[in-house]
Fold Zeta-carotene desaturase.
Amino acid sequence: MAYSSSCLCSLLLALLLNVTNAQPLVPAFFIFGDSVVDVGNNNHKFSVVKANFPPYGRDFENHYPTGRFCNGKLATDFTADLLGFTSYPPAYLNLNTKGNNLLNGANFASAASGYYKHTAKLYNAIPLSQQLEYYKECQNKLVEVAGQKNASSIISDALYLVSAGTSDFIQNYYINPLLNKFYTIDRFSDTILQSYSDFIQSLHALGARRIGVTSLPPIGCLPGAITLFGSKSNECVAKLNSDAISFNKKLNTTSQKLKNMLPGLKLVIFDIYQPLYDLVTKHSQNGFFEARKGCCGTGLIETSILCNRKSIGTCANASEYVFWDSFHPTEAANKVLANNLVAAGVSLIS
Ligand SMILES: *[C@@H]1O[C@H](CO)[C@@H](O)[C@H](O)[C@H]1NC(C)=O
Ligand SMILES: *[C@@H]1O[C@H](CO)[C@@H](O)[C@H](O)[C@H]1NC(C)=O
Ligand SMILES: *[C@@H]1O[C@H](CO)[C@@H](O)[C@H](O)[C@H]1NC(C)=O
């Protein structure tokens, strides 16, 4: 496994060397989803789910808290680096994001959003349906700055990444009696996969052809989930992880159907379950010292506004931690995840 990933990475490296000092491997990179990939859209929403204050961003460019739920770079930032971009797709709602800034892509993700539209509503986040509306608006702007012909090729050659689902379970299903009393986990998964399927079909109808979708992570190993659902144990919550595994199987089946149905579509599932699970359960073998606690505060529960400058106990060196706050990986962990993403994504860009 490790061998084949490094093989693919060298293949990609070879591709990259060919384009040194030239164009990125794809003309643009568009990102949709939740807090794992939000780069600041929620800064512009009346929502408590934000990360645009220290210590978020303390290891990012200029130590600036952009709204990323991380001390530094997200996995998608590393991906953009590897693709040869010199800047990251900007948060679409950022007022500076217009015209020429959109030529290399944009980021529509919003923390606490999900496939299930009510998840986003609970937190006043941007539902995926609205992210898609913003993307349509963005396409019109692209046509204005690049012309119809160039815009069409940017749209069809661009890489699209969708990363959602965790909030639907952690921030909604498991804590919401209106859902968990009436839906079995299986039925809830089917419901959100229907939204996933609709989303991919809409994106395809709008011209997207190269789409990567992340699987659910091992949600039972997120420090906050262990605290909330772990019955005082410090181990990953097995039930939550098995829910994620069954969801991921269904995600594969649904994606296979979409590929058969939608002409010209390249669709790849980026499995982040296994690499993150390995980081947590074999952290010392991977050069990490701590996986039960996040770096910020006690690391057991803090995220968003609870992780702030006044949080007591924040660690000095986040690169020793798998998790930055109680729900989101550190830059160091994201780098490992990104390498896996790139290995799996070669077929999307070649
Ligand atoms: C379209 O792309 C070509 C090739 O990159 C470029 O020369 C041309 O200026 C672009 N057209 C517009 C309207 O930007
Ligand atoms: C889903 O597909 C991906 C890529 O083909 C694979 O790596 C992963 O193991 C599959 N996951 C499940 C749960 O079948
Ligand atoms: C932080 O930890 C990493 C990994 O153990 C180590 O390589 C690095 O030197 C440390 N940085 C500081 C400033 O101590």
Confidence is low (pLDDT under 50) at residues 1-7. The domain at 2-349 is CATH 3.40.50.1110 (Rossmann fold). Residues 248-249, 252, 269, 271 surround 2-acetamido-2-deoxy-beta-D-glucopyranose (ligand 2) (CB under 6 Å). The radius of gyration is 19 Å.
